[in-house]
Design a protein that fits this description.
By secondary structure, the chain is mainly beta. It folds into 2 domains: 87 residues, Sandwich (Immunoglobulin-like), CATH 2.60.40; 86 residues, Immunoglobulin-like (Sandwich), CATH 2.60.40.10. The chain is built from 1 helix and 18 strands. Helices cover 6% and strands 47% of the residues. The longest helix is centred in the N-terminal third of the chain and has 15 residues. The strands form 4 sheets. It has a 5-stranded mixed sheet, with no helix packed on it. The termini are far apart. It is elongated.
């Protein structure tokens, strides 16, 4: 009897110490919320992005094309369209053009013809409505200095190897003005350097030459102009 009583007590103790059952009063940790207050399988909704203001004006640059290059002293025409939901078409002083290379505006209006500061200009057209809301567009335009040009011979011409070919070219720079003399160097893809200056004559070897005029200003900035020239026997 005593042995049976001992065995019964042992069985009770073993069951209470974790024979696989849950301890009364224990809490399942999986049911606890995390610090954010969300359970493990709760989904965090994506933050909604605000829509663009539907009452703001719009501006679209129609010319020039992005990446257009122009000599520093040759004006370029800019055109744009601008409109507003309340005011309708915007024109005149409501449309302003600016370059990131200068402080003052380039001008205003939906059509503007102007020269640009030398370099790669990020030009912005901004339309402003009667409530001071704005819409803008941008285009990149390159203003080049110095500038070189081969005037003679023409691209694609054919000449005889028995006669000297006359070469004529010009170059100009915003700071230095006309470039002449040693600032102008002529080279051939077949014969190497063939001359300097604005004009000279040279007999060339037989073959198809790429003739290049390189102009260099006082700041070592360069510009090139090239033509193809065929020399026959």
């Amino acid at each position: 009897m005593r042995n049976r009583l001992v065995l019964s007590i042992l069985a009770i103790l073993l069951g209470a110490c974790g024979g696989g059952g849950d301890v009364p009063g224990s809490i399942d940790s999986g049911s606890l919320p995390d610090d954010s207050g969300l359970t493990a399988d709760s989904a965090v909704p994506d933050a909604a992005l605000p829509d663009a203001d539907p009452t703001a004006p719009s501006c679209v640059i129609t010319a020039p094309a992005a990446g257009t290059e122009r000599a520093f002293d040759i004006p370029i025409m800019f055109t744009a369209t601008a409109s507003d939901p309340e005011d309708g078409t915007l024109t005149g002083a409501s449309v302003v053009w600016r370059s990131d290379l200068q402080v003052a505006p380039l001008g205003s209006g939906t059509t503007l013809t102007t020269t640009l500061p030398v370099g790669t200009n990020l030009v912005t057209c901004t339309a402003t409505d009667s409530t001071a809301k704005t819409g803008s567009a941008t285009v990149t335009v390159v203003s080049k200095s110095p500038v070189a040009k081969i005037n003679h011979p023409g691209d694609g011409e054919t000449r005889s190897a028995s006669t000297a070919v006359p070469f004529v070219g010009v170059a100009r720079d915003k700071e230095d003005g006309a470039l002449t003399g040693a600032s102008l160097v002529w080279t051939s893809s077949l014969d190497g350097q063939i001359g300097t200056g604005g004009s000279f004559s040279k007999i060339l070897s037989v073959g198809v030459h790429t003739i290049t005029l390189t102009a260099t200003d006082a700041n070592a900035n360069t510009a090139t102009s090239s033509i193809a020239l065929t020399i026959t026997q």
